[in-house]
Fold this protein.
Amino acid sequence: MLSGDLYRASDPELSAALLRSAKLQDRYNATEADQTGIRTSILRELFGSIGDNCTIRPSFHCDYGSNIRMGRNCFVNFNCVFLDCAQITIGDDLQMAPAVQLYTAAHPLNPEPRRSGLEFAKPITIGNNVWIGGGAIILPGITIGDHSIIGAGSVVTRSVPPMTIAAGNPARVIRAVPQT
């Protein structure tokens, strides 16, 4: 699965990993607002790695969790979904608005393998100091460069270079990030 080869999500080992993740997410999403320490400890157990000073507001959903690596000083707002069938790597200082969706999972175009339940996944990489607007969708295999901005409601179907603003469906680079 992590190598990009075809796999079956119903595989017993993957099913067990999904159950583990679901239980941790249930605990996380049920925590009270003043239980920051508990939330952080659950994320450290759920994710492959997470840096210091990260906030993920519930409800948060993912597939496995173990394939998510997040840097430090990241903020993820309400109702985000990370389908981490491949690695999701997020740099430092991320700002993510509500309802953002990161999809690493994909399905074969040929109907026969798709009908048989086979799927594949491609990693997503998000650089440092990236801002992703509300409701954006990031598709499999995408890299978003450092200091870039993704507009609200965008569907990112191609990688985004550093220091650019991309928006739309499909997302297109609109202009460079302004220099101070």
About this structure: The CA atoms of residues 120 and 129 lie 29 Å apart. The helical segments are 12-29, 36-46, 111-115. The chain has one domain: 7-176. The mean pLDDT is 96.
